[in-house]
Amino acid sequence: MVSTRAALLFGPGQDYKIETIELDEPRAGEVLIQLRATGLCHSDEHARTGDMPMPHYPVVCGHEGAGEVVAVGEGVTSVAPGDHVAMSFVPSCGQCQPCRSGRAYLCDVGAKLFDLGMITDGRVAHRYGDTPVARYTQLGAFAEYQLLAESSVIKVDPDIPWTAVALVSCGVATGFGSAVNRGEVRPGDTVAVLGVGGIGINAVQGAKIAGAAKIIGVDPVAFKREQALRFGATHTFSSVDEAIAGVGPLTGGAMCDVVICTFGVMLGSLLEPALTLTTKGGTCVVTSVAPMAQGQVDMNLFMMAMMNKQLRGTVYGSVSPRVQIPKLFDLYRAGILKLDELITKTYTLDQVNEGYADLEAGRILRGALVF
């Protein structure tokens, strides 16, 4: 049995509480890690606000983590004690049809992401006293130690800083892939990124690295617009309406080849303005998480068809994490991809609520818990 401090969420609308929980020792196919850094991603806020209702409370949130392997269970071959790993909220079993066809970001094991029990054998392996504890996307990175399935960790080189490993495990891979992989940004394109937070800023980076000629960052927060310019945007606007009015003259009326929706919360009412920004034959990528009950969207279907536009969803940037993460670190080492600069402020585990207050207020681009 392993005891660890963790940030528990006991219900929607509540703050995190730091408590001690108990973890099983690793069994077959499992890994025990000591967390070193965890990014404060907005996706966890969906659990706290209730936009993404959790099937069980209490839950340990956090899914953008990096740590060191402490122990492994029987049959684990991809990592060993002492290895540095990134946590991946998309598990990759390597055996299901999506994994075998090169689409591990759609791994069938993802159906278990919000199960109370372990991915491996379904048992309850996390407890607060006698109460079972869930983990957000089977990770629960707001903890000093965590028990995970081997399919949820990816070995990384030990020279990469812990905070960089943490951020690449979700926000960087998702934002970058939204532009490069799902948006298929090409040299000379005009790209709009709607919402310049921890994911949107990396869509800006991805568009720049892919060779976009014009990159439009849209965000109501002045600090984030400043950061967009720092990371590669050529123009910024404070609202989508302003962008619609401003992008026309910039492009001779053509608008944007690729529009990437990385709003803090995706709502149905935001889709038609995003499509208005999208050029004839262009692509609109929806990366943002919407409330699970959001079942209707505003869309002019006539214009969608007659203008030959594409609407695409994406998860994890539409690339296998085991493929994407090493490539992103190669770009980081080469000085092409900015990772260290993404961190505005670091916090301790006990300051997790402060970190999310700063995120909500627009005072940080990305915060990280450092253990």
Features of this protein?
371 residues; single chain; 26% helix; alpha/beta; 10 helices; Quinone Oxidoreductase, Chain A, domain 1; Rossmann fold; 19 strands; NAD
What does this entry look like structurally?
Residues 13-371 form the Enoyl reductase (ER) domain. Belongs to the zinc-containing alcohol dehydrogenase family. It comes from Pseudofrankia asymbiotica. GO terms for molecular function: S-(hydroxymethyl)glutathione dehydrogenase [NAD(P)+] activity; zinc ion binding. Keywords: Metal-binding, NAD, Oxidoreductase, Zinc. This protein has 371 residues and is an alpha/beta fold. The protein has two domains: 2-161 and 339-370, Medium-chain alcohol dehydrogenases, catalytic domain (Quinone Oxidoreductase, Chain A, domain 1); 175-314, Rossmann fold, CATH 3.40.50. Helix content is 26%, strand content 26%. Strands 3, 5, 6, 10, 11, 18 and 19 form a seven-stranded mixed beta sheet that branches. It has a six-stranded mixed beta sheet with strand order 8-7-2-1-4-9, with no helix packed on it. A six-stranded parallel beta sheet has the order 14-13-12-15-16-17, sandwiched between helices. Helix 10 links the parallel strand 18 (343-347) and strand 19. The protein starts with a strand and ends with a strand. The mean pLDDT is 95.
